């Protein structure tokens, strides 16, 4: 018998031990093992882990019943105990088909009150079974993790069976238990993906407080002048691996990372620049760099847990080697604080800065960069864009004359906000970084700045700058764009 047959027999015997059915013929055991895509040893390990946590218990005959369909009552108890949800709901839900004295009563009421398990007209249906899709949603809500990640962990569960078994539920819950955030998380590995991006794995995910940029800057400290440039972002489908943006690395430097005051690892700086396809003008003072997924370059927004629900079909999962569907990808991390150099033919170079929230919008990977205040691209002049973090295949363009869009309306939407409407959709967040001036009949001036990501078609929301007076009811304002990003004036804006 070869090695693979030995492994198959051993796996089947492990399954038999868990089932309490060691007397079954070996060919039957093989068939039962084949029904479950999860390796029997992985189910056994999950059961041992959950049993140790007092999450899962066996039957009176000493078996775990891992091939039995799990009931909603059984699942409720396991979910509450896996994620420590006892007492999490302010008020328990009243359930019409659950005996208050039943062993599962409190667990069912807890999850129903938290909207983690759905009920119909107050009925919990404790003896009902659960499909794979239902289990994914339940675990996602209990863990407060994106559905795409949990669905990725559940890929090894059978499809089309109509119900999830106790063993399959144990496997998924044990995986999700490892993904519970911890304030005590420690870094286990760090490596550079490219010259501005690290991939850092911890033994547990960070808490929301530890992910915040201000806190992360204190916690993640690098040697040799390297700096964190934005918050670390948890990869979709991973347990606790993060995409971490840094300032530009030096390929000749071995960096040391200190996390919360403790040395956490070393890594070699990367010389790998991101492959960008083309530089092109999009406004009088703004240009963009294009990157294509078809060329193996993906924006981090499509592969991180925080954004997965908002990116629709563009969101996907990269494995631990940053591969998907047999293809390896470069990852563009956050553009915050990024700069490139743009040089007019025969002129002096200028530093253009990234326009926030323009990195990947409208399904495109085209981060925008804006010239210094007061500078514009001169029509007919050839410009060349260079970068210490990006390799741009087509890095020159001839500037064109851009006619600004017309501002056709402005409407007060509160004491501090104005909705500005242009003659057409500017696309790709070109509102970003812009402002308008509001002047009342007495000549009093106020400035409102575009609210990032507020654009809906041709309309963008502008908020009064901090410290400015609120808009006054009954007062009429004239609204004018600041600079040449748009033209026209809207009169008659009145706060009711």
3D structure, described in words:
This protein is α+β, with helices and mostly antiparallel strands and 496 residues long. It is built from ten helices and 29 strands. Strand 1 and strand 2 (197-202) form a beta hairpin. The protein is globular and about 85 Å long.
Could you list the spans in which at least 5 consecutive residues all have pLDDT below 50?
1-36
The gross shape turns out to be globular
Number of strands: 29
Class inferred from helices and paired strands = alpha+beta
Number of helices: 10
Provide the helix percentage.
Answer: 10-25%
Largest sheet, described in full? 8 strands, mixed
Query: How are the strands ordered across the major sheet?
Result: 20-8-9-18-15-14-19-21
Mean pLDDT over the full residue set: 89
Measure the end-to-end span: 85 Å
Radius of gyration: 28 Å
Question: What amount of the residues lies in strands?
Answer: 25-35%
Brief write-up:
The protein is built from ten helices and 29 strands. The chain is of the alpha+beta class and about 500 residues long.
How would you describe this structure in keywords?
eight-stranded mixed β-sheet; alpha+beta; 27% strand; 496 residues
Layout of helices and strands:
Blueprint: H1 3-19, H2 26-35, H3 40-52, H4 72-82, H5 105-113, H6 132-143, H7 147-153, H8 166-178, E1 187-194, E2 197-202, H9 208-211, H10 213-219, E3 220-222, E4 233-234, E5 241-245, E6 254-259, E7 262-268, E8 274-281, E9 286-290, E10 297-299, E11 323-324, E12 327-328, E13 330-332, E14 339-344, E15 350-354, E16 360-361, E17 364-365, E18 368-370, E19 382-386, E20 390-394, E21 396-398, E22 405-412, E23 417-422, E24 435-440, E25 445-450, E26 459-464, E27 476-481, E28 486-487, E29 490-494
Parallel strand pairs: 8-20, 10-13, 22-28
Antiparallel strand pairs: 1-2, 2-5, 3-6, 4-5, 6-7, 8-9, 9-18, 11-12, 14-15, 14-19, 15-18, 16-17, 19-21, 22-23, 23-26, 24-25, 24-27, 25-26, 27-29
């Amino acid at each position: 018998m070869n090695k693979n047959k030995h492994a198959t027999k051993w796996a089947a015997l492990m399954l038999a031990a868990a089932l309490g059915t060691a007397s079954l013929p070996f060919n039957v055991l093989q068939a039962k093992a084949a029904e479950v895509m999860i390796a029997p040893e992985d189910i056994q390990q999950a059961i041992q882990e959950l049993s140790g946590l007092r999450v899962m218990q066996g039957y009176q005959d000493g078996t775990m019943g891992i091939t039995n369909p799990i009931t909603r009552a059984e699942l409720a108890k396991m979910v509450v105990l896996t994620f420590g949800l006892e007492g999490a709901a302010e008020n328990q839900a009243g359930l019409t088909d659950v005996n208050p004295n039943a062993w599962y009563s409190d667990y069912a009421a807890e999850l129903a009150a938290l909207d983690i398990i759905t009920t119909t007209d107050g009925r919990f249906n404790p003896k009902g079974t659960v499909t794979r899709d239902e289990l994914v949603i339940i675990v996602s809500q209990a863990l407060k993790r994106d559905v795409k990640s949990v669905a990725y962990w559940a890929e090894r569960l059978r499809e089309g069976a109509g119900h999830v078994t106790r063993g399959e539920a144990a496997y998924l819950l044990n995986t999700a238990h490892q993904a519970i955030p911890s304030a005590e998380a420690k870094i286990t590995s760090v490596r550079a993906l490219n010259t501005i991006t690290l991939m850092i794995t911890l033994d547990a995910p960070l808490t929301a407080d530890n992910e915040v940029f201000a806190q992360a800057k204190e916690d993640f400290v690098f040697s040799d002048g390297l700096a964190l440039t934005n918050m670390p972002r948890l990869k979709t489908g991973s347990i606790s691996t993060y995409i971490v943006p840094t300032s530009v690395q030096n390929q000749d430097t071995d960096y040391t990372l200190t996390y919360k005051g403790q040395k956490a690892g070393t890594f070699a700086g990367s010389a790998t620049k991101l492959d960008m396809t083309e530089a092109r003008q999009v406004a009088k003072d703004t240009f963009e760099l294009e990157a294509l997924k078809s060329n193996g370059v993906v924006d981090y927004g499509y592969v991180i847990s925080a954004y997965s629900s908002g990116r629709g079909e563009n969101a996907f999962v990269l494995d631990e080697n940053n591969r998907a569907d047999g293809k390896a990808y470069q990852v563009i991390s956050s553009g915050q604080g990024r700069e490139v150099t743009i040089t007019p033919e025969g002129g002096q170079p200028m530093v253009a800065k990234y326009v926030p929230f323009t990195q990947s919008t409208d399904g495109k990977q085209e981060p925008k960069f804006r010239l210094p205040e007061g500078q514009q691209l001169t029509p007919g002049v050839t410009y060349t864009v260079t970068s210490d973090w990006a390799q741009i295949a087509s890095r020159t363009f001839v500037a064109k004359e851009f006619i600004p869009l017309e501002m056709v309306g402005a409407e007060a939407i509160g004491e501090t906000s104005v909705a500005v409407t242009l003659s057409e959709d500017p696309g790709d967040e070109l509102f970003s970084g812009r402002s308008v001036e509001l002047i009342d009949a007495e000549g009093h001036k106020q400035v409102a700045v575009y609210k990032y990501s507020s654009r809906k078609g041709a309309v963008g929301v502008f908020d009064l700058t901090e410290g400015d007076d609120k808009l006054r009811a009954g007062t009429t304002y004239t609204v004018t764009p600041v600079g040449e990003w748009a033209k026209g004036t809207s009169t008659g804006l009145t706060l009711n």
